[in-house]
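ENTRY TYPE: protein
WANTED: fold as tokens:
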Amino acid sequence: MPVVSFFTSFLFPVMIEDTDAAMIEGLLQKINLTKGLALLINSPGGIGISAERILNICRSYSGKEEFVCIVPGKAKSAATMICMGASKILMSKTSELGPIDPQIQIQKDNKRMNIALYNLVQSYKDLFEEAVKSKGNLQPYLQQLANYDAREIKEFEAAIELSEDVAIRALQSGMMKGSSKEDIMSKIKIFLTPEETKSHGRSIFHEEAKKCGLKIDLMNLRSNLWKHSYELFVRLDNYTTTRAAKCIESKEHSFSANINHQ
């Protein structure tokens, strides 16, 4: 089956977004996909809804209505969501998937830091629960709760549920067809919350992914398939580190988002 590469930079400030879905669809229109599609993907992630659009496009254009994801390096966050929509994922022992729980960037002490929405919501709920149980002075709790906006908490909860829903729908219609929502949530918990991984950037390797019920084909590090995949990865990773923020290409066609160096 033909291979399409989808790389977004780990260096430049870009993410998976709707324009990527449009570029991928434009490229797939030019390829004979009667034998299916292999998507070689490397990205730190981006917008969950965009990931859902991309996996739907890949399925729709594939002549077999399914596609394979090849992960030669890192497919994190929203890129992991795309992989969850595949019929199977090809990984090596060094390949990485990652948690898909949404994050928010905040400014603290003149530094930007990412915080998991799951932890923000949970800290609010824990504090509120302690305040309700308290029979003494409520003032300390009220002072801390004043730092939260209940409307924002609702939005954060919706973002968490959206991320879960994208992953579950992708798996229910693909590699976990026939499984219930509750069963899938239980199996992929390591992807959904930071309770086990502790950090959004933490790697989830092939063994853990397979235990979650994902269909993982392990590529031998000495095989020709891995050598070719890794060579393409090195070339495109270098390209999206030095020349372009994104690159989407097949054997004969390509799109790229260039960076204007100052």
Remarks:
- The mean pLDDT is 94.
- The longest helix spans residues 150-172.
- Residues 209 and 216 are 7 Å apart (CA to CA).
